[in-house]
Amino acid sequence: MNIKSLLLGSAAALIAVSGARAADAVVVAEPEPAEYVKICDVYGAGYFYIPGTETCLRVGGYIREDIGVGDGGSFDGVNHVTDHQHGDDDSTYWKQTRFTLKTWTGQETELGTLKTYTEYRINFGNSYGDYGTPGLAGNTEANPNAGGDGWQARNKTSALEFAWIQLGGLRVGADESAFDTFIGYAGNVINDTIVPYGNFQTNVIQYYFDAGNGFSAVVSLEEGSGEVGTIDSYVPHVVGGVKWTQGWGAITGVVAYDSNYEEVAGKVRLDVNVSNELSLFAMVGYGSDNNLNDPTNNIDALGRGFYKQWGGNWAAWGGGTYKFNEKTSFNLQASYDDWKDIGVAANVAYTVVPGLTVTAEVDWQRVGQGAIDNQSVWVNATKKDNVGGLLRFQRDF
């Protein structure tokens, strides 16, 4: 009987203890429903849906390191700086590190595709050019003997390069001029503006039209930029272009009206895909410059407008790309203008791993007599031949 009572008592005690522990148990809340990011493949690789919306977003950019040596007039070196230890006249590298952040968005609407694009750049490095003689190409700072510090490495520009909205064929915002974007840049070399072929950044109101069968067109109202390029009235700069694209290549033409000086410039370009490995291009430009030679103009604009950046009335550019394999390509560009300026740039670009490319380039510039006679500050007028080289490391993501 005592044993039975003992067992019953022990069982009652265990039940009581268990009940006490159950009452003290922590109640775990049910997890909130999670909305995971979904891939959006409508506009290409890298896009994803912004949670809770129908907008697709892509984030990317690059980090770049440029190292340049050579003559200041070829935009590759920094000449005539002061030796810290001995006070001698030296030359040094031109170096620049850039971080660029890009965003793209896309969304389908009843009025067409709604897209945006932004690009912001931040630079650190020293300025290129000849600092011994103020007023020459690249000399954006004072003579170093007068206390200038233009060759010193420092945080440089940070700039919003692109920020535009496009609905269907209508685009508004900050972009590069259709005078260059629609017809194409002058080759796959780094220094493609030894003989310049147009100006770039501007606010735009553009309309793109795709007529089918390879035909397309653009009309662009532009504000310009800079001291002599920005419009000074309610009349905008106007750019129009037409293009015919086929499997063998393309033929493109653009015409621009500079409202500040009432001058016209145009370019025609031929692209040819010779083979899977070889592609070639040739481009010619012509522009009027009667009012651009007004001596009351800023010397930076002497003979040049926002669109006709080359010397004299006409200029030509040509070159191409040859792909040795999936990783290695050779790029060449040659240019010449009415002032007898000559530019040649050649490089080899090698993709080390996907997303990392190393490019080695050599540049040569021959300053024409027309540039010297017109006191152009775009070239080093004290030296007719300039040679330089660039080494670029770029990580795209």
Overview of the molecule:
The protein is mainly beta. It folds into two domains: 59-166 and 338-396, no CATH class; 168-315, no CATH class. Helices cover 8% and strands 50% of the residues. It is built from three helices and 19 strands. It has helices at 2-23, 178-181, 369-373; strands spanning 48-49, 56-70, 77-82, 89-109, 112-125, 129-130, 154-167, 170-176, 201-212, 215-222, 237-246, 249-258, 263-273, 278-287, 314-323, 328-337, 342-353, 356-366, 385-396. A 16-stranded antiparallel β-barrel has the order 2-4-5-7-8-9-10-11-12-13-14-15-16-17-18-19. The protein starts with a helix and ends with a strand. Mean pLDDT is 85; it is low at 133-148 and 377-382.
Task: Pick out its properties.
mainly beta, 2 domains, 3 helices, 397 residues, 16-stranded antiparallel β-barrel
